[in-house]
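Bit of a strange request maybe. I'm writing a small parser for structure token strings and I need a real example to test against, not something I typed by hand. Could someone generate the tokens for this chain?
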Amino acid sequence: MPESKDTPTMFVLELQCTDLDRDLLIAELWDRGSAGIFEAPASLRSFFDDEELIPQLLRDFAAQQPEISPIADEDWIGFARAQTGPMVVGQRLFLAPEWRDDPTPEGRLRIAINPGLAFGTGSHETTRMCLEWIEEHVRPGSTFCDVGTGSGILCEAAALLGAKLVVACDIDLTAAQIAHLNIARSASRFLVYTGSVMAIAAHTADLLVANISPDWISALAREWLRVLRPGGRGLLSGFDESDLPHVRAALQKANVQVTDTRGENAWRAIEIVG
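Reply from user aminoacidic:
Good idea to test on real output. This should exercise your parser:
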């Protein structure tokens, strides 16, 4: 029997990409209605369920050598899951897809991940740098704030490592809803809301992380200092080497003290102190 015209056909759009253009491409794919995005070292695989989008997608992403592959609707979840495996991060964290039953390595804390509508599975360099920093700095009783929380993975890590309170925000409603569900698995005391860092009370955070765009890190420079307690520490990430001078200049103008810079491949993170 021929397939009904009313039945959507799922397909995968694969794009070649570099670390420098990865985040921008991901944002553009979400804007065009992607149902899910999975990252490979030099490419992105994005799922769509409307084949009428194909001609426009091929034009819009011509520079990324696009390839289209149809997937039966009943198979696409299995295909997507096959792209994501468990990984160790830092000295104490183990990230595993929630459908996998791989044993947690001895001495590590397990965080279940489910790639989907919110950024943050641990596969990206900026997320890993943030997770490693959190592992190094969270102490029992810390108050931890995550600005632009995405999936909430950073808050989950902070809670498992001993933070007594985690506060997460994201301007995207869907991300905030996903983060709320995820963080609830790990934190006994937490607050997740849709909005910006400007809603967080002054001197709330012992530790603060913002893994967002360089423009927002720069625009909110004064907020980082306001939210941190005296002597509190923060990590600002989500930008590459070319953005580093611009971000540092904005922080210096806001009298934010930079203590160190981290890097993985082309990506960078800046450590600050309150």
